[in-house]
Design goal:
Number of helices: 7
CATH topology of the largest domain: Beta-Lactamase
Strand order of the largest sheet: 1-4-3-2
Largest sheet: 4 strands, antiparallel
Structural class: alpha+beta
Radius of gyration: 39 Å
Oligomer: single chain
Number of strands: 4
Number of domains: 2
Distance between the termini: 43 Å
Helix content: 55-70%
Order of helices and strands: HHEHEEHHEHH
Amino acid sequence: MGLRLKFNLVLLAVFACGFAVSGMISWNLLQQNARDEVVRNAELLMEAALAVRGYTVEQVKPHLDEKLAKVFLPQTVPAYAATETLNQVRKKYPDYSYKEATLNPTNPRDRAVEWETDVVNAFRNRAELKELNGERATPTGRSLFVARPIQISNPACLACHSVPEAAPASMLKLYGSNNGFGWRHNEIVGAQVVSVPMAVPIENANRAFFTFMLSLATVFIAVFVALNVMLSWIIIRPIASMSAAADKVSVGDFTIPEFAEQGKDEVSVLAASFNRMRRSLQQAMKLIEG
């Protein structure tokens, strides 16, 4: 096995290990960054919903309290206002969603589906849990959800949700008396759920990964070629020349010129040693012949 082949095999083994380790680290890092980006988008959407809720309670409902005594306006309900506002966002970004998933809602559209029921029950079973996120498969691809519990911390909410007799007649006329009642103070009745698609961040992460790996492979090929050229000119060719000269000297052919002794590297030192050995052998042969 030649020196060049040994060198290339070691170089290929080192590159394969480095390529695999770099690929694994960069893949995990890029995928985690993509997921973190999706989580940030979901939390931003959640904060927007909370802002709409707060605005409705503080600046909209107080101006309509007098009118609410005569007619029920769902627009003054924080959950309704937040849902309607973010539904406007969904017209442009249909894969994004916001829902106040409730086990026993007044408005039927807020009723929790199976997976949302599991999220609500997780909050009900663990009072210390304040936020939950996870991934799920949807018809349009992977989606990440962020959920926060809906807890009846304000006793005023029970005016519309304790028993039908206590609720405004205008609300009963709109939604009926079968749903949205029996809630208790401090009870967790649902969850605010924001869903954000993961397709675009994941696709960007994959594109960045393949670009990085292609760049890494290109750099290796360039380094591989450069090192082989350097190995050939600096080491292989001088050693091959010395080997051929040594063969000729070994059979008494001293017509070959001496090697140049320029520099202080190992090849130059070897060339100087070879020249001294050649001269010594040539003188010894002359003494023997004389």
